Amino acid sequence: MGETSENANKRTQYPSSRFRFADGFVLVVFIAFAFLGLYLFQQDLMRTFDMRDIDPAGTLVVRDNIIQRRHEDRVLWDRIFVTSPVYPGDLIRAADLSFATIDIEENEISLNQNTLIRIQSISGDIGNFQVELQEGNISVASGENSAGIILNLHGSRVQAMSGSVLNISSGEEGISVQVSEGTVELIKEGKPREISQGMMVSMDTKGVERVIPAAVVRQPAPNARYLKSHEEPIIVNFLWNRINLSPDELLKLEIAGDMNFSHGYRVLENLDSAAQADFDAGSWHWKLTYDNRTLSSGQLAIVDSSGPALTSPAMNSVFRFWESLPQIRFQWEERRGASGYIIEISDTQDFDNVRITKNIKAASLIIADLGPGAWHWRVKPVFSSNYPGDASYSPVSSFKIEKSDSSSAPAIEVPEPAIAIKPDPVTVIRSGAIRIPGPLSSSSNARTAAGGGSTQYTVQSGDTLGRIANRFYGDPLTWEKIAAANNITNPDLIYPGQVFNIPPL
Predict the structure, then answer these.
(1) The whole model's pTM is what?
(2) Single residue among 365, 390, 413 that ends a domain in this structure
């Protein structure tokens, strides 16, 4: 019995010893990975500190969805955002359903989805940097005052001079260069070749030129942007050169509010070399196709540049003070794409006597030196020169400041706001043109669903789930409630025109 008990103890101890060894091995591996992660983080952090002494190559000016950057001697990718600097050696990629525009020495480099580029320093007459397209599709608009830029395409080089606009793609079938404006020079094996406006060159992966049907779009630019300051839609003319197409081979223009061409889809068929379409505010994608083959594609943005809705102080509010002048907080809705705002405050409704004019970046301002009297104010968004068109002032709002003889008098009187509900937009089809409806304005895109309870909201251009949650619940972190109510699996992918049910908080 004693031997049996001793053997049993040995058997129970042996598995325990093996378990402790495996547990220790896992712990060592875990610690090794932790140290590796800390090392990589330290290397990235030190590289970030070092880059403070390096002049950036350019700035990210437009961004939709996921745009990532990795420096050539880094391991980790990080997301970059609007106004972020980009540096020589950066690898920049646009993920699926993503888009970005980078300004490099007054050259706009626009990345379409699933595109990877590298920015490199050079020395020469054509700018200080070159862009290497490793895969995907980019558009380049070289400014009138720029020195141009060099593009590297798997050994071939394209010199884009000032004033030129071109579209370049690189993929499994090879590369293609389409010139919409100006003239560029293609250099292959040291031999230069000029490509002028309306022309294209296509080569396979071995550099052999291909003869394929194409449409080189001269108008609009591949990633055009327009300002719309009025209610009427913007008319956009499409003009293109037909390449390797017979006269009886007619094209189709497809337009949609998303890259998958599933939202707000419209089509014009039997086209020769021109078309016309009306657009409301929003981001729109287009493509010219023949026999289910895309010959040319692009994106355009119609930016609402009308005066924003003024939210505070409310119309006809009265501010009373006893001893010190009140602090008045002016606030208005943001305009997507605006680089700033101009606010004017006047003591006359026709603004003949403007007392205060300020140009600010934020959509709010606090002023504490307005004296007693009736005051009128308005706001106009400001856009960069990359957006052709005009912006307009908001409707005028008014309030009063009164000195009170009693400290117990109410400090602020705010009237009940009137709510106006507008009808849903209607798609209008015209002869030779199409109307693309945009989202409703912020004052009319929310309405109570039948039966009460939840509220229906139409997504606007520039909306995020966080902004919508903040608008209805006062807290952007409650966006998950809206996502769950509408079966949204990817919060980064919402589109203008979608209708969400907003449940009660």
Answers:
(1) 0.63
(2) 413
